[in-house]
Amino acid sequence: DEPTRSLSGLILKNNVKAHYQSFPQPVAEFIKQECLNNIGDASSLIRATIGILITTIASKGELQMWPELLPQLCNLLNSEDYNTCEGAFGALQKICEDSSELLDSDALNRPLNIMIPKFLQFFKHCSPKIRSHAIACVNQFIMDRAQALMENIDTFIEHLFALAVDEDPEVRKNVCRALVMLLEVRIDRLIPHMHSIIQYMLQRTQDSDENVALEACEFWLTLAEQPICKEVLTSHLVQLIPILVNGMKYSEIDIILLKGDVEEDEAIPDSEQDIKPRFHKSRTVTLQHEEERPQDPEDAEDEDDDDTLSDWNLRKCSAAALDILANVFRDELLPHLLPLLKELLFHPEWVIKESGILVLGAIAEGGCPEEAAGGGCCCAGGCLSLPVPPSPGCMQGMVQYLPELIPHLIQCLSDKKALVRSIACWTLSRYAHWVVSQPPDMYLKPLMTELLKRILDSNKRVQEAACSAFATLEEEACTELVPYLSFILDTLVFAFGKYQHKNLLILYDAIGTLADSVGHHLNQPEYIQKLMPPLIQKWNELKDEDKDLFPLLEVSRGMPRRAVGGGAPALRPPLTPVLSPPRPPPLSSVATALQSGFLPYCEPVYQRCVTLVQKTLAQAMMYNQHPEQYEAPDKDFMIVALDLLSGLAEGLGCHVEQLVARSNIMTLLFQCMQDTMPEVRQSSFALLGDLTKACFVHVKPCIAEFMPILGTNLNPEFISVCNNATWAIGEICMQMG
């Protein structure tokens, strides 16, 4: 039966992957020959399995050692038998995906010179599956500007235009994908046809097949980054804007996947995959093998098995496109948007109203619209790097409408649909800067009151959105929040007992941001009494090897931390980028804010951090001596512990001296500063700088040993390590005089 045959092929593929180099020569030759003999199997599943097997062998450096493979596959394309032609094309497509650079190199005598013209012939084939394979093969070589493709570029574009209205969705999708990539690398060839291409993409963005519509929607994202965007697109905005806005509605499948009909789920524990960080993979880099591929159990583990909705979809792409176009056209978008917004925001159907609130957020300043459109971040890492100045969007033109819109959005925070409440949180956070610029009683107080209620919502998605929005509001409002601290802390502490695992991490973030925003104002006995017992209780519940310590321990390692006190450097060393949002989670921020108020709690926290560093170093030493007996340690534990020690040194100042005196931290620091992992050295130098400022008496005896290590790390190849080493040297010089 087919499943058994396919599974045996995949088991063979896994053996090839792991042990091909040790196969006896006759075995390897036999497998290669049988693959080519059976590439035209009657079963499409078996053909796909053989294709995977062939490309796995090829990826083992065998393309050079299997010179007859490409000529034979290209030859099989001429077969009268459909199965043989389709099987050979399927294998070639996988090889093109996995080995595109090698195929365009002298190492193989540039086979693309023959392959590309050959593929182009099949654009006119009578079978849609073959046409689709042919375009997908050529598409692999666009981004790298393969020489053979560039020589045939006009023929390629001509053939694409001929397939523009193909009846097969897979073919249309590949045509759209090709045009999007050509826009990036050969816009010169598209400019003469730009009007027709834009008209075509407007149609395809509304294609009945969502995969085609999504591929076409990418076109607007790419076009927005081209210098000619304004010139070529202005006259089409009147058609484009309603199409993008329409694409921002949740589809029925989105609502099912998001459990949009479930209003109360706070008591349901999070599943493992709820807790994973979510990312959007860059589209042009990871073009998936979308054709029929058998499911390999081993491959399944490697793939991002995140909830489907964090995948890129039409809603997110439309929102991201509108956001980026708002930065290109600014207020020129508003005449096209405002009539639509009026209708959407007050619509009786919740799905339509929700999309209107998303539109309103997408055109505001700064941020990342994909987070709102259903989780994850569309910035492919952009949100995780050093902070970028917010982009203005249509903010200037919107200001006159905000006195009417903000109260309406605050009202939407109490909507009966959870998905409306959660999007209202996000959109309001995009206008937080404006809210804070008005007299506090007008908008800040009502917004804060409602957001705090939503933090205690019975729906987990709303809790998450409200906590994130509140953290943004905290950053904007800073000390404006001081009069309401008691009320804020009561809410955040109550949420401790209410939240499931994933939202607890976001709650920690909101607490850390609050501490950063109000600073020493938090150092009041009443506030300390509210906040510290639940934080310390969580801290005590967790074992040393529990990764949930990270959010409690971590200092923000994605952005430069603001330095406290006089004489501090303008730029505190940026610590390592992490996979969470770039805000400081709590204990370090709380220690910095509470300063002496943290003293009663600091000893067990300090000791535990030292223990974590010590344990990790010991484990690393055992692993280095006997790698076959011991596992490599997870050095993240050591990194976050070093970072919290930095936070303690910064927050407690000279009070940290007695803790340092009673521990072996300087000896441990000497080892950490020489660790092979750059992130460990980076955090070590940050801690050294903070200890130099807080208790130089303990650093001074070590200067002779430390300075040469600092010197060898002045290597800009590891920029953050280099920055932190430079900063620590500066602090030492200040003390030494």
TrEMBL record:
<dbReference type="InterPro" id="IPR000357">
    <property type="entry name" value="HEAT"/>
</dbReference>
<keyword id="KW-0677">Repeat</keyword>
<dbReference type="Pfam" id="PF02985">
    <property type="entry name" value="HEAT"/>
</dbReference>
<dbReference type="InterPro" id="IPR011989">
    <property type="entry name" value="ARM-like"/>
</dbReference>
<dbReference type="InterPro" id="IPR040122">
    <property type="entry name" value="Importin_beta"/>
</dbReference>
<feature type="domain" description="Importin N-terminal">
    <location>
        <begin position="2"/>
        <end position="40"/>
    </location>
</feature>
<keyword id="KW-0813">Transport</keyword>
<dbReference type="Pfam" id="PF03810">
    <property type="entry name" value="IBN_N"/>
</dbReference>
<dbReference type="InterPro" id="IPR016024">
    <property type="entry name" value="ARM-type_fold"/>
</dbReference>
<comment type="similarity">
    <text>Belongs to the importin beta family. Importin beta-2 subfamily.</text>
</comment>
<feature type="compositionally biased region" description="Acidic residues">
    <location>
        <begin position="297"/>
        <end position="308"/>
    </location>
</feature>
<protein>
    <recommendedName>
        <fullName>Transportin-1</fullName>
    </recommendedName>
</protein>
<dbReference type="GO" id="GO:0031981">
    <property type="term" value="C:nuclear lumen"/>
</dbReference>
<dbReference type="Pfam" id="PF13513">
    <property type="entry name" value="HEAT_EZ"/>
</dbReference>
<keyword id="KW-0539">Nucleus</keyword>
<dbReference type="GO" id="GO:0031267">
    <property type="term" value="F:small GTPase binding"/>
</dbReference>
<keyword id="KW-0653">Protein transport</keyword>
<dbReference type="InterPro" id="IPR001494">
    <property type="entry name" value="Importin-beta_N"/>
</dbReference>
<dbReference type="GO" id="GO:0005737">
    <property type="term" value="C:cytoplasm"/>
</dbReference>
<feature type="region of interest" description="Disordered">
    <location>
        <begin position="267"/>
        <end position="308"/>
    </location>
</feature>
<keyword id="KW-0963">Cytoplasm</keyword>
<dbReference type="GO" id="GO:0006606">
    <property type="term" value="P:protein import into nucleus"/>
</dbReference>
